[in-house]
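The instructor's notes for this session suggest beginning with a concrete chain rather than abstract definitions. Hand out the sequence below and ask the class to guess, before any prediction is shown, which regions might be ordered.
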Amino acid sequence: MRHGILPLNHYGRFNTSILDDEDLAQKIHLHLTGIAKEGYVRAQDVVDVMSTPEMKRYLGTKTGISKRTGQRWLHKMQWRYGKATKGMYLDGHERPDVVEYRKGFLVRMQEYQKRMTTYDRDGNILSHPTGIDIAAGKYPLVEITQDESTFTMYDRRQTKWDHADAKQPEEKNEGPSLMISGMLTQEWGELKHGDQTSRVVFKAGKNRDGYFDNDNLVKQVELSMDIFEEKTHRFKRALFLFDNATSHQKRAPDAPSARKMRKSPKLGWTARPGGPKMRDTVLPDGSIQSFYYPEDHPTMPGWFKGMQAVLDERGLFRYKENGKGLNGECKDFKCPDGATDCCCRRMLFHQPDFVGVKSHLEEVINSCGHLCDFYPKFHCELNYIEQYWGAVKLLYRSGPRLKKMEDMEKQVAACLNDISLVQIQRYANRSARFMDAYRKGLNGPQAVWANRKYHGHRVLPNDIMVTLEAAGKA
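After discussion, reveal the predicted structure:
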């Protein structure tokens, strides 16, 4: 009464948490994040950190917390106990060479997207293609993203209602597999026209269809281009996007390659036994060089020239101080660091016409007037077909138990066809948000957080870094 202030009644005001102290919550979270990088996070880790003298002084208490309180705090800080979910590959996601490639890829995608139709989360058109100039070869673009996924016959849901007296026996192995290689678009979903489909069903295995390699993918791409051109009457161009896998970067059988070249001439030599001869190459000055002597050569008609002759014709072959010529390659091809002219093979490796050889996929696609590009390594979040596979497998695992291969093929096909176009467009928008996040300077974990917060958008706000800082994610 002396101060003219009524005392507060504390009844019902004891439901606040110590974790409402943001500084404390941030310290604990950073500690747990460090543990998660090396191993597993436990509730006991929270108990341990709160029992340190520093934390006791900070809280002004003599005792720590119980394990049950540690579990509640983990939930409050958005940690969840369960099976680890698959996300982006953080092991190489922010590697300097990967980040550098990602920057270039995002610049190219920004240019590509100007010529594409974009859609909102409900399938309505957000923007139409711009900068179209048919005379200059700038046609509207349709993005076609490719990937493979493998289904197994006994792959079932692991979380389900099960009665103690009616447990179903489970198979010990996954059973026979079925691989699907798909081509997905934002415009139409799976690429198909009439009764033609770009989908490839492949029974991988030694005594089955073999293994899906670059040659199989090139055949699928050729079929896809035929379907696309018939569907669009060649008034549009396709942008084919692939994962940056080694098999996708394979060069054409006749492409120039120094990897297996011999130093000296030889009759009938090819890069692969029984394969085609290496095609002629174009030198920086525009002249043509053949790797084989002409058929009317007086002593070696049609022979492979060898690396020494190839370099000599370019004016690059040199002799050592002892009078001997360069070796074909350094021992085990372990050249000195930074060396570019220590051996014949290393010199050819650095020649512009060898460095600039495109992959077989690029050559086939570009020869038909379409575009080809590759996602950055470790960036599955940029390829929206990955979410498509996840949705298909969720349906497949919820289906009936299967025993016959033909039933499995029907079930997989039904699940593939059951994913709606609007779902696919939402997956594409999610990938677009990740691309926009990286353009705005976010790293992998920040991009994941921002994608969840702005899940209804195609791009992130321009002040996203301010939002990250306010949320303690910067």
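Then share the key points. Residues 254-357 form one domain. The mean pLDDT is 89.
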